[in-house]
Amino acid sequence: MQLNKLAIAMALTGAATSALAATETQPEEAIEHVVVSSRVYTPLREVATSVSVVTQEDIQLRGYANLADVLRVQPAIHVTSSGGMGSATSLRIRGEEGYRTLVRVDGVDISDPTGTQVQPRVGQLLSNNINRVEILRGTQGLVYGADAGGVINVQTGHTEEGVYGGLRAEAGRYDTTNLSAEVGAGTQYVDAYLSVADYSTDGFNSRVDDDELQDDDGYDNTTVHAKVDVHATDRLTLGFVARNNEGEGEFDHCYSGGYVDDCTSEFSQQNLRLSADYALDSGHHQLAYAKTRVDRENFTLGESSYLTKGTIERVEYIGDTQLNDVYRLVYGVDWEEESITTAQQSRSQTGYYTELQTNPTDNFFATAGLRYDDNEDFGQHVSYRLSSAYLWQVNDGELKLRGAYGTGFRAPSLYEIEYNRGPYAYAPASETDLKEETSKGYEIGLEYRVSGATSFEVVYFNQEIEDSIYFDLASYSGYLQDLGTSYSEGVELIGQWAISNQWRIDANYTYNHTEDTDGEQRSRRPRQLGNVGVTYQTDQFTASANVRLVADAVDNGTPLKDYALIDLSARYDFSDNLSVFGRLENALNEDYQDLSDYNTSAAALHAGVSYTF
User: Fold this and answer.
1) What pTM does this model have?
2) 469 near 416, Cβ under 8 Å?
3) What domain range includes position 606?
4) What residues pair up with 198 in beta bridges, in sequence order?
5) Running DSSP on this structure, what letter comes out for residue 412?
6) Domain count within the chain
7) What is the CA radius of gyration of the chain?
8) Which band of pLDDT confidence, cut at 50, 70 and 90, is reported for residue 16?
9) Pairing between strand 553-555 and 541-551?
């Protein structure tokens, strides 16, 4: 089996090398920009860190209802869920914990402060009406907060002149319905956008050990998202973002004087962001206030068994100044307070950062950044990031050699601290004074790009976590500190090839060797991840097939079966406005698990129609 997997990896590499065939160099006007790396508008060719981009076309073609499913086919990302849509879901980038992944939707951090760790509830995040996703891999806390071990930057809707919009309806297995609508309007002075999505499914039985009920665990979600940009002057833009996400799901194995498999949960999250952006000839200045509120409540046999509420408030300023033709300075200040209001706990942290960006020649780019954080409970910490990229022309393409090094830290969450102080903890956890985790990581990458649709990339990465915090699964005493170093080390192979005007191949493979402080493989981090997608496209018809490989994974010491899933999707455009689409997930009905105690979906067929105006 190991030789077969190695052969797949080598085949991907060989195919990438041979497929770097003759296409024209990307025109200057088509050069792509991203904002996720340093939060300022930067040409992708100048970025020295690992960035992936998912377009609206990619999202609509694959059709996945949950954003986590969209992301799991991207390089170095593994997603685990305790059931179907809406269940507890963790998204790990390069093997790091889900709570070290920051997710921002239109500039708003959607993390939940009430959980065991502060992390995004990605299982509650629908993909409807998402326009673009930028993924930043590695230790990247410089401009986002020192605990960010990866960043997912989500952008909704789009901007265009006049009134525009669309309707989309889909139905599929497990009595699933997925309805959404969007409308927008753009003028010289105002851009406005509103979207509504409603998802419902009867689901499937989530727990393997649910021997008695064998009931389906359904889920319902309604999400409303609005944003408005007011161009007050030629230089000043005022922004407003509001989002309301309501989810209700069924799950198994909750406690009510004993474990039962008839449980429900209610999730509610509201996000608000106000911003002012002022543009100068030499750069931009932006001041923003954001607030996230989360309510979560679980019910056992119809009675409330767990209720928690919390908020995150954040004020941030970010600016950039073009000092001259060679140097640009990015700088900012952020203040954040996270609270679990039902437990009357709160903590604030203030950060200051600056990054110097330089391009002394047309083909060399480098950055050096420093961040200072003052945490109310855990004091002062300094983190930094260095990166550089060198480019040169090779035949009809461009070759980029790049590298980056970054550090960070994560303070214990309010929940972790309070649990160890509470009545349910006992020795050794009750006697443990938790301290902050620290992290560092570096990467070296080589990328060859012939055009926007043909490129190949190989990346080596190495990341370390010192003194990681974990729950004591041996005696269930509480949270302990794993004194020492845990690490993830691996290689990413990424390629996309425009074989012709109709055919395209996208592929990625990640080999990730992880170890904890005892030298054992870290749980829920597959050693091998791979995706190969083939797309055929004409003026009216588009079809895609994707194969996803997951191999060499363990869950709390239990080896999991290797698996390969095939997903198929197709779309036919009757006109510029009307389309029909369908997809078949897990087409071969593979029996697999990402977590040892939980089931996954069988083959599921979905079909729908969309109309735009």
Assistant:
1) 0.91
2) yes
3) 34-147+187-612
4) 179, 222
5) P
6) 1
7) 24
8) very low
9) unpaired
